[in-house]
Write a structure and sequence with these properties.
Blueprint: H1 2-24, H2 35-41, H3 49-66, E1 71-76, E2 81-86, H4 92-108, H5 113-121, H6 126-131, E3 140-145, E4 148-156, H7 167-179, H8 224-230, H9 238-254, E5 260-264, E6 270-275, H10 281-297, H11 301-310, H12 315-320, E7 330-335, E8 338-346, H13 353-365
Length: 387
């Protein structure tokens, strides 16, 4: 009897394993990480870079057609960043809410609008939802293919004109364009709840009368209405950031490697992010830390990496007081002597993170960009570590 039970349990376990394999294969490879990259992360059901990039591109194209800007974030099914773009002229709230919406859709496995509607019906619920880490605004959608959740997308930055346009409509149209008509229909929009006792205090206006100017070529920086919206003519443009990333991505692939990359503007906000297939949390996180360190120090992170190798007693101060990440791969983006952002690369990139970043910078800016200069072996020089 015990043997028969054991055999039954083995058969049941085998069936479960086969069922799991069938589920993993239920999503077409074109949408998810597959092959050796999927084996590396032990997951055949996470959205791949190609799909995330197509979703972002479709939404940005639709936004441009409406004459508006958006920020978009695509997360994998573990909540890691996969792809992010900030169209020119987007500010802090536009950028951070895109991720908040995506995370809400991922945690709930449902559109973030559902939580917004709950708060419209009962405003007392919002505090509890905030405590749970949920953002009660529309614009976040789960990415589901063949009933399998593979990630989430969040869009922020544009004023709604329902039923013609909204952040959520942008995300939904992009999903339909990339994944197909099986994408779930949009949830009904509830009319916003009006404050029964609105105040009458005048709200100040704050708008510059002139557009900020830059001495740099216009293809390198945010200009026109975008620059006026953020009062800054020296932020790296999305087009330039994407060129850095594409070059670094192709260079890493040519070396048989992969990379994660972040590009920040001069305020430290995300401009562009991408994670090649097979990258794990450490690769992704270190890329961001390198970009943040390069931005704060206005130096390549390789400088401190060598300084601390030569004299490691400065390491506690670098970490505890300044929160610097002292691995090579972060470079401030300095064009014609003007810093316009920072790039951070992690994951090895096949031939070195800093080398990958340099390839991208050279492709985007040519002779205009400042790059690290490496002394001859045995030579000493450079600035000392901060003490």
């Amino acid at each position: 009897m015990n043997g028969r039970i054991a055999n039954f349990r083995c058969a049941a376990a085998a069936a479960m394993l086969l069922g799991g394999a069938a589920l993993a294969q239920n999503v077409p490879e074109q949408f998810v990480v597959s092959g050796k990259a999927a084996e590396k992360i032990q997951d055949f059901t996470t959205v791949n870079l190609a799909t995330a990039e197509r979703i972002a591109g479709a939404c940005e194209q639709a936004a441009a057609g409406q004459g508006v800007g958006i920020s978009i974030m695509v997360l994998d099914n573990d909540g890691n960043h996969v792809y992010m773009d900030r169209m020119d002229g987007q500010g802090y709230l536009n950028i951070v809410t895109a991720e908040m919406k995506a995370r809400t859709a991922l945690m709930d496995r449902a559109p973030s609008k559902l939580r917004m509607n709950q708060v419209i019906e009962d405003p007392t619920r919002e505090l509890q939802l905030i405590q749970l880490g949920l953002f009660t605004n529309s614009g976040g959608l789960p990415i589901v293919v063949n009933k399998q959740l593979i990630g989430a997308v969040g869009v922020g930055g544009s004023a709604p004109r329902v039923p013609v346009w909204s952040d959520e409509i942008c995300a939904h149209q992009a999903l339909v364009q990339v994944i197909g008509t099986a994408v779930a229909p949009l949830v009904e929009d509830l009319p916003p709840r009006r404050n029964p006792n609105p105040g009458t205090a005048p709200v100040p206006r704050f708008a510059a009368t002139t557009t900020p100017k830059s001495s740099l070529p216009p293809e390198f920086v945010v200009g026109g209405k975008g620059a006026a919206a953020v009062f800054d003519g020296n932020q790296i443009s999305l087009a330039a950031a994407q060129k850095i990333a594409r070059t670094c991505r192709n260079w890493a692939a040519s070396k048989g490697g992969a990379m994660s990359l972040y590009i920040l503007d001069t305020a430290g906000e995300l401009v562009h992010m991408e994670r090649m297939d097979g990258q794990v949390y450490n690769n992704i996180r270190t890329a961001l830390l390198k970009a943040q360190t390069a931005l704060k120090t206005r130096q390549p992170t390789s400088i401190r990496a060598v300084q601390l190798k030569n004299d490691p007693d400065g390491l506690p101060r670098q970490l505890a007081y300044f929160n610097f990440f002292t691995n090579a791969g972060g470079i401030p983006i300095v064009v014609d002597g003007q810093m316009i952002g920072a790039v951070g690369v992690g994951g090895g990139a096949g031939g070195g993170d800093e080398a990958c970043a340099i390839e991208g910078l050279q492709a985007a800016f040519g002779d205009h960009v400042t790059l690290p200069v490496y002394p001859a072996p045995g030579a000493r020089g450079g600035q000392g570590a901060a003490r």
